[in-house]
Amino acid sequence: MSLLFSPIQLGNVTLDNRVIIAPMCQYSAQEGCANDWHMIHLGHLALSGAGLLIVEATAVEADGRITPGDLGLWSDDTEAALAKVVQAIRRHSPITLGIQLGHAGRKASSRAPWDGGQQIPVAEGGWIAHAPSAVPHLDSELPPRALDAEGLARIKQAFVDSALRADRLGFEVIELHAAHGYLLHEFLSPISNRRDDAYGGSLENRMRFPLEVFQAVRAALPGKTLGVRVSATDWVEGGWDAGQTVAFAQALKALGCDFMDASSGGVSPRQQITLGAGYQVPFAQKIKRETGLPTMAVGLITEARQAEQILQEEQADMIALARGMLYDPRWAWHAAAELGGQVKAPQQYWRSQPRDQKALFGEIRTGQR
Ligand SMILES: Cc1cc2nc3c(=O)[nH]c(=O)nc-3n(C[C@H](O)[C@H](O)[C@H](O)COP(=O)(O)O)c2cc1C
């Protein structure tokens, strides 16, 4: 029996299978508002048969966007724009929907990757970023402004407000973005956090703000399936590492975290990453083993049997894919065919079921959950 195509309980939500579409920034929104691109992009991924589709890093305030094109959820306008996309998906797909909520911290005000990704000067429409400390990501960049007590309170509230909007939109799963060198990760890592107040220095102090954010969102949405994506290591000597990640995950678990999503890197240009198939899986395994929390593995997992083996060996509970899903949006269908699993497919596409795969598509009709 395929584990990849068996259900999993995450908080109050049961996913049909353990194939997760990882959050992927599209840098294509206008003033934070979703548009036709998101309808097409998320619409096609909603037909993928994955157990969970996590919408891209969505900014909780305008200044928390990585690029001016980031999706946002900080106002009635941004909420209404995303509502159109979510409602269309709901009409045509039974997929479970999640959203990643984030704040770019010192990596805000950047150009889209296809425009080079550099910091945008204020004179060219950029803005001054906020971060734990006034330390830029790159020496060449304009330093961010260190957050004061008022700024911390504002951002914490922004996470809560966006989470409430996400809940109202009908997202069943919320993931807080504490990875890739963005704001919450910047608090965790001693590389970016040089504060000498209660939010910097010791591990306990560096975890304080991300935990406060988690706790505030949890308090606002007690029954919501809520998880956290972490960078399990900075890949820099003396930076954030797997041991600290486990301490963070344990603290999150005590506050009611439903799952962890184990990524890595992004806080320092000095990172030395050894890339390879499933290179981040050991981090998921460590978090899972030492906390017992349901954990997603992500990063260069591209093959159905590789994904299945990770689950069979209890290295992770779910498998998230990003680039592989863009390359082959029917990855889950093909993996189910290979592993003898089943996926939900739209009835309009049922005739595509291969002759020798009569059980591939579960009996599900449009709009039926
Ligand atoms: C186009 C693109 C956009 C991404 N945007 C996000 C994002 O919004 N949030 C995030 O946590 N990771 C983001 N990532 C990282 C992916 O979620 C994933 O962790 C990474 O690509 C490794 O998985 P893969 O080897 O399956 O692509 C992005 C990756 C890609 C390729």
UniProtKB/TrEMBL annotation:
Residues 4-337 form the NADH:flavin oxidoreductase/NADH oxidase N-terminal domain. SUPFAM superfamilies: FMN-linked oxidoreductases. The keyword Chaperone does not apply. Its EC number is 1.6.99.1. Keywords: Flavoprotein, FMN, NADP, Oxidoreductase. The keyword Cytoplasm does not apply. One of its GO terms (molecular function) is FMN binding. It is an enzyme of class 1 (oxidoreductase). InterPro entries: Aldolase_TIM (IPR013785), OxRdtase_FMN_N (IPR001155), YqjM-like (IPR044152). It holds the Pfam family Oxidored_FMN. Its cofactor is FMN. This is NADH:flavin oxidoreductase. It comes from Bordetella ansorpii.
